[in-house]
Amino acid sequence: MSKVRSVVNRLHDRIDYFMEKCPNMTAAPYNYNYIFKYIIIGDMGVGKSCLLHQFTEKKFMANCPHTIGVEFGTRIIEVDDKKIKLQIWDTAGQERFRAVTRSYYRGAAGALMVYDITRRSTYNHLSSWLTDTRNLTNPSTVIFLIGNKSDLESTREVTYEEAKEFADENGLMFLEASAMTGQNVEEAFLETARKIYQNIQEGRLDLNASESGVQHRPSQPSRTSLSSEATGAKDQCSC
Question: Which reaction does it catalyse (predicted)?
Answer without folding.
Answer: GTP + H2O = GDP + phosphate + H(+)
